Amino acid sequence: MVQPRSTCWKGPVCMLAGITVLVVSVGLVEGNVLAQGQESSAPAVSVTELMQAMIIPASNTIFNLPRDPPTDDDGWAIVRNSAVILAESGTLLMREGRAEDSEVWRATSRALAEAGEAALRAARARDADGISDAGNLLIDSCEMCHEKHWIR
Ligand code: HEC
Predict the structure, then answer these.
(1) What average pLDDT does the segment 101-105 reach?
(2) DSSP strand E in 7-122: where?
(3) Whose CA is nearest to atom 36 of ligand 1?
(4) How many whole angstroms separate alpha carbon 89 and alpha carbon 139?
(5) Hey, which of 131, 144, 146, 147 would you mutate to test ligand 1's pocket, going by the most ligand atoms within 8 Å of its Cβ?
(6) Could you tell me the distance, in angstroms and rounded to a whole number, from the CA of residue 19 to the centre of ligand 1?
(7) pLDDT single digits (tens) 71-87
(8) Cα 47 vs. chain centroid, distance in angstroms?
């Protein structure tokens, strides 16, 4: 008689086999993560590209808000999304292979993220003044990093 497949999972031998498969797959996944970790030392995206694609457009949205405050849900969603990009950009600037080994780089990457987080709190509360304050923190972080790291 052919055993139904489902009973296999109840037998100790089959369970062992299952655990072996699990251990091997975890090992493979780990191998993959390691391989990706090695790639992370040479990011495909340069700092200038990160500035152009994410940090400049997102910060422009924050800087322009006092002149052109959102009037509806969609407008606030754009501000919130920009704040999210900035809040996470600090981590992207600190990525291995991208981060410069300097205290200024670390401090201003963190300051950028903190300004983004402040903008995010203000955007969630639809607080235009809060966005202006976050914009002031933001511009400080840009300028302080560029002062040391902008290659002219
Ligand atoms: C942690 C450091 C750091 C922070 C923070 C930072 N930048 Fe940059 N930025 C750089 C570096 C490095 C370059 C590339 C300079 C070069 O290659 O000459 C750059 C380049 C730029 C450029 C020139 C891009 C181009 O097309 O050549 C602009 C504009 C810019 N950043 C805007 C900003 C703005 C706006 C902020 C803040 C919201 C900011 N940056 C925050 C490091 C930083």
Answers:
(1) 97
(2) none
(3) 142
(4) 14
(5) 146
(6) 50
(7) 999 999 999 999 999 99
(8) 14
